Amino acid sequence: MADAICDICGKAVPVHESFIVRIDVFADPNLPPISGEGSANLDTSESMAELLEQMKSMSADDLQDGVHRRFEHRLCAKCQRAFMANPLGLPRQRKSGMN
Ligand SMILES: [Zn+2]
To answer: 19 C-alpha vs ligand 1 centroid, how far in Å?
Structure first.
């Protein structure tokens, strides 16, 4: 019987005792509200310019983040429990200068 390797601790575990963690990361498909009802009578030139400014400031990195990414990992039972307790691995980052 083939063993699976835990992607976190590296331990070999029987396949039937392993867990698969699948993470999909993708942009919400909802479109931003361009013009809402009720605001038709308002002068929208200002908010329009604001929107264009936001789009201009979108970098290549932002666009790259919009690509669908899928991560798949195999975990042993112990690491699966740890993962379930904190799926996002928080705190992801510490703010510098907190002291
Ligand atoms: Zn493990």
So the answer is: 10
Separation of 66 CA from ligand 1 center, angstroms? Answer: 30
Domain ranges of the chain: 1-29+63-86
Q: pLDDT tens digits, residue range 23-55?
A: 999 888 887 787 666 555 556 677 777 777 777
Q: Decide if 12 contacts 5 (C-beta within 8 A).
A: yes
Q: Map tokens 């936001």 to a residue.
A: 54
Total-model pTM: 0.56
Find the Cα–Cα–Cα–Cα dihedral 63, 68, 69, 75, rounded to 10°.
150
**83 alpha carbon – ligand 1 mean position (Å):** 10
